[in-house]
Amino acid sequence: MRHLTVSDYREMPWANGRGKTVELLRVEDAQGLLYRLSMAAVVEDGPFSIFPGIERNLTVIMGPGFDLVGEGIALRALALVPVAFPGDVAVRAVGTAGAQSDDFNVMTARRLPKPQVTVEHDGSKLAAGGTLCLFALGPVAVNGVAMARHDLILTEGPATVTGRWPVIAVRLAV
């Protein structure tokens, strides 16, 4: 089990230059990006960065949310409701009404199976299988290990969540 905290993360500009992201975890191989977990704030209507060959999954973790629209895409990004979309389709955030929404992002190479992204609560028991990434939205424990807000635990084994705050669970098959 690996435990990452905010001191392990790095901030960088968005690919389109319209904001910043906090990269929590990035794993690459010889062909490029395998997967990346990050956080960002959407503060206004506007385009998302385009990532060819990447599948995206976004979960609003704070704020009112917004709509994601593009060619063949019309999604409502609401708090704690994961939404998936292709990274190589031009998508815009609309309906922000000037309110900030913070989100948790999962990007995976299209050559991989799509990740399973769920929101888990106190008492959730997750089976082993693949790489399980658990992102805390407040003080909780995973397998008895205390986590602060925005900590990330990675495990190949099973996980039990305890505490009053939700955890975003991402299961990656790599």
Automatic annotation (TrEMBL):
InterPro entries: RmlC-like_jellyroll, RmlC_Cupin_sf, Uncharacterised_HutD/Ves. It comes from the Bacteria. This is HutD family protein.
